[in-house]
């Protein structure tokens, strides 16, 4: 799903009004109807609804939602927060409609007029939307602080009031902390970035009928990854195929005390469909790996505890994953260099392979074009330095991917893949239970397994992050986010693949 910046959302709105055609008031009615419908489907009419409105179109949405909920039998009350009486035209129309339907909004002109809410009320935040031009101050700030002091569920319309959609939060800036945000038509960038996303709570994208031609034809560097995108390139296994069809993967992983990382990535690689897997490991890992994963082949290094440069290996691997648990021994640095020099095609680099790269930037010249790097934020910082904010980090990712012709998957709640062309894909599957030891090793294995099956590096990044997240979601549903382990993510990869393949695959 495309993610547009606020100026483009405004363009989409204007294009829709012109070409559908539809009046701006009717478009607001559609947006408000979608919100009211969502509320009705989750909260019974016995729940009182308190709607806090501003004077722009976000406030207009709130006034319309109040009227629509009342028409469906809810006790809904609107408050209009303003120190002046200047309303946007559609906000004014909706104030009038609410008055005509019975009772208009109650004015709040000072923080002392903040009402005592009925017990168990649902709060709707329609103070400010994408028209935010400056950090909150004065009355608006006071009201938002009052809302944040409540213990009631808070639904933000379009975006939490005070949150910038396309720029970092202001220093000392405050926003409504929503339990749920109903975002019109698209995710906003802020919902996908760690500094702002938590305040949006759970985000639901509500279609409001913006013109499909505009959406299809307008380019944007930002997209979310969802099942529809994945199904465009997911390849079902052919009936007359053999293990060679699905590629031979090589994983260089593990060191004394960290053989678990090698084992997790190796199992994840095979469970993602690679035809054959060879594991390049230090000698100490031979028995555990062969015992726990008999399906994998082992290439043991001369050294007992860590990877060292070895004999030339001319096997034509379809993919090479390097990094989980390898440590940073000077011999291992040379082993990494040798592996990179010998790799004729894109590789997957993770964990200590990235840390070595950060300390030995001279190795960059050996990283094959199209390779996939999977840093978490700390590893990213070691590689490219610290950033002032999430947006500065996106820009740094864009530059690094272009300079080195690689794909970077920055791991996080919404793992973000950046391409050499400067496009960003945010993953939307997964959950907080995946913040657990070995989860990253699992992703490396999945990516190496997909690359072996001749998915392109971009397809590998998109399918890999998505399926990793979905497997994590299945694991969390079965075991709870607290109890699930990285090996449970691997155990649920099957359910995730079946989901993508669709029902006809399950027979
Ligand atoms: N996408 C779509 O297609 C659709 C979008 N719709 C809705 O429209 C919303 C965008 O509406 P909008 O442009 O009127 O902006 P909105 O945020 O309501 O208010 C702007 C007002 O706030 C003021 N203001 C700004 N900063 C401030 C501050 N810090 N503290 C105090 N005031 C501040 C600013 O005043 P000024 O800067 O001039 O002083 C201006 O008066 C969007 O989020 C969605 O809900 C739907 O209705 C239909 C379809
Ligand atoms: K809002």
Tell me what the structure shows.
Its EC number is 4.2.1.136, 5.1.99.6. The protein is α/β, with parallel strands linked by helices and about 500 residues long. The chain has two domains: about 1-225, Rossmann fold (3-Layer(aba) Sandwich); about 245-500, UDP-N-acetylmuramoyl-L-alanine:D-glutamate ligase (3-Layer(aba) Sandwich). The chain is about 40% helix and about 15% strand. The protein has 17 helices and 18 strands. An eleven-stranded mixed β-sheet has the order 1-9-18-17-16-15-14-13-10-11-12, with helices on both faces. Helix 3 (about 55-70) packs parallel to helix 4 (about 90-100). The model has no long low-confidence stretch (mean pLDDT about 95).
Mean pLDDT score = 96
Structure annotation, total helices: 17
Largest β sheet strand count, sense and barrel closure: 11 strands, mixed
What is the CATH architecture assignment of the largest domain?
3-Layer(aba) Sandwich
Shape field: elongated
Helix fraction by DSSP (H/I, runs of at least 4): 25-40%
The level-1 CATH class of the largest domain:
Alpha Beta
Q: Supply the number of structural domains.
A: 2
Radius of gyration: 26 Å
| CATH topology-level fold name of the largest domain | UDP-N-acetylmuramoyl-L-alanine:D-glutamate ligase
Keywords: ATP-binding, Isomerase, Lyase, Metal-binding, Multifunctional enzyme, NAD, NADP, Nucleotide-binding, Potassium
Catalytic activity: (6R)-NADPHX = (6S)-NADPHX; (6S)-NADHX + ADP = AMP + phosphate + NADH + H(+); (6S)-NADPHX + ADP = AMP + phosphate + NADPH + H(+); (6R)-NADHX = (6S)-NADHX
EC number: 4.2.1.136, 5.1.99.6
Subunit structure: Homotetramer.
